[in-house]
Amino acid sequence: MAGCGAPGSPPRQSGPGSALEEEEEDDDPALACDGDLEVNPYDGLPFSSRYYELLRQRRELPVWTTKYSFMEHLEGNSGIVLVSGPPGTGKSTQIPQWCAEYALSLQFAHGLVACTQPHSLAALSLSLRVADEMDLNLGHEVGYCVPHEDCCTTETILRYCSDEMLLREMTSDPLLRQYGVVVLDEVQERTVPTDVLLGLLKDVLRQRPALKVVVVTSPAMEERLRAFCGDPPVVRVPEPGPPPQLLYRDPPARGHVAAACQAVLDIHRRQEPGHILLFLASEQEIAECCRAIQTEAVALNPGLGPLLVLPLHPGVGRAAQKVYEALEESGRERRVIVTHWLADSSFSLGTVPFVIDSGLELRNVYNPRIRAESQVLRPISKSQAESRMQRAAGSPPGTCLRLYSEAFHEQRLPPSPAPHVSETSLSRLVLLLKRLDIADMGQCDFLDRPAPESLMQALEDLDYLAALDDDGNLSEVGIIMSEFPLDPQLAKALIASCEFDCVEEMVSLAAMLTASPCFVPPSAHLEEAVTVRRRALLHPDGDHFTLINVFNTFQQHNADEGWCRKHAVSGEALRLAGIVRAELLEVMHRIELPVSPPAFGTDANVLNIQRALISGYFLKVARDIDGSGNYVMLTHKHVAHLPPACCYLLRQPPRRLPPWVLYHEFTISQDNCLRVVSEIQPQMLVELAPQYYLSNLPPSESRDLLTELREKVVAVEDVPAAPEPLGEAAGGEDEEREVCVLQ
Questions:
Q1: What pLDDT digit, counting tens, does each position of 309-327 carry?
Q2: Is-contact 375 669, C-beta < 8 A?
Q3: Which of 43, 48, 13, 44 is nearest to 29 (CA)?
Q4: Which residues, in sequence order, are bridge partners of residue 374?
Q5: 245: left (phi over 0), alpha (psi -120 to 50) or beta
Q6: Do residues 649 and 641 touch, judged by C-beta distance below 8 A?
Q7: Which of 149, 231, 568, 581 lies 20 to 30 Å from 736 when distance is taken between CA atoms?
Q8: Degrees (nearest 5) of the Cα angle 13, 14, 16?
Q9: Which pLDDT tens digit goes with each residue over 91-149?
């Protein structure tokens, strides 16, 4: 990494403080133009005028006052430094830069700097901002690494990454030897990867004392983390200014979305200057609210100025950067940023004069007893409400309007958000920890231990999938499954496709299931025309096959955006599926799995895809109990329905509904619909699912039918061998069936 220093200049051996002293001496940006130009130590080029402009802004951040203290602790003997401060104070941009200064002072002897984020969008956004502040090129000295997108090179010295990516990196480099400093940012979000990284990094520090770990959190989590991390030094970031004016409003009878829209329009009509940050419960509410505000804004007096409504949630992708784009020169444009829990801590927007908080969030909570998620609309926590209110703190202080009563805040809001590890399926996590040779979950240090029931269910599911051996360690199949960045069930189906000669199709399907949903709601006036066009893409054998068909057709049309608009499909989602597909094929080639040639459209291929799917998804099968579309899950007694966009409901002329289906997802919600559904034959389920899984199903008519089918299969297997030619064929079939059961 010697190339990261300035060519021809002496190495900076006096420690990171010297870099700060030089910056403090250069308060006058004119110094950038008089005499010798100051050189960027990371790329050896002179600093631009924009660097000094942004440096002035950085020095005004509340976190800047803590730089000396932070650097002293980082250079000290403690392996962990805890940084505590409210949102919007500059922690996520400045702390990693100071860590890069520290690493530079050591000539990167112990490695580079990684900064994790709980949300991929935040990692992308922060890397763009920090590269700008450091006067460097994104993708060179500063980069980001998120699922399906790696914008880093061998030159990268500061890497922003999602916490999930750093955790996966530990499977190949358990001690993270390429890093000298690891910053865990927004730890109060309590995502599963961040919680696990906290525990694992404590163990890494015992084996690599030279590593530095910086834990960044909100004040509400400070004491908890201090105890967990062994009483490390704490750097406390001051608040950005006086607290905002806090207003409570009784819950509106017509709903919080309508009340939020009305509050935005009232502020705009009063011509009070400043942007608005609005927190709602879900992406659906965000979309509904944006449409309503835009519709109402058309009828407003033009003299009030333009109203720019910007949604901010994971689904908007790179469009999230619009919240940072320069405003019109007139300065009369007002931004309304409509978001949810994503912006509780991430996406600092400076001081926002108006914050409107609905006090609710929609979360998916996993129930291990029924192996399904439930959509839960619930109050946010007090710490989240505090973080949202702090967005309006500053000089002068803004206003935070809470669309709930003070009594609701005191009585209904829990002190802190539930850790995700208590609300998520743990199968993927357990598979990863097994890959890290953590055979006993008791060896892993958690801030909050997962429920024993959730762990047992995850181990049971992995055992059903043949991912574990008799000792509870990863089997050969389990090791291969852990190589794929997929849920265990999908990884097992992909591995099974090698046996059933349908890899080309299954890898496309796995990519489509991993990417965001490809179908988007068409405009009302185009709905009928789009439905007719989409019908040509439907596959008679189910939604899984329709997804393969859509991907193939998109590729045949050379990723044409016009074709996407005609069929109301997301070109962005399909392009992402192409990236995921390439990644999966790369993994398969690397571990030398066979890839069969494409055969989509043949009857044999349909049968093989169904077999591969059942090999991974036998836990997700449902049966129509009355012939009218009331599907009961095999693993529990919940009744679900086919989704409105299901191929079996859209096809013309209408035909009978499939009696047995395999589905990709089921979430207990208002509509109680299965997601991505294809018909299967129960005989195939009996042949491919493990016998002990079928025996463990809860008593039901469905289990009785499967047991009866199983007895018939066993009876056929027990028939004495036929004459030689037929015997060989029968033996071959039995052998194949036996292999399927084992896998």
A1: 999 998 888 888 888 776 5
A2: yes
A3: 48
A4: 365, 668
A5: beta
A6: no
A7: 581
A8: 100
A9: 999 999 999 999 999 999 999 999 999 999 999 999 999 999 999 999 999 999 999 99
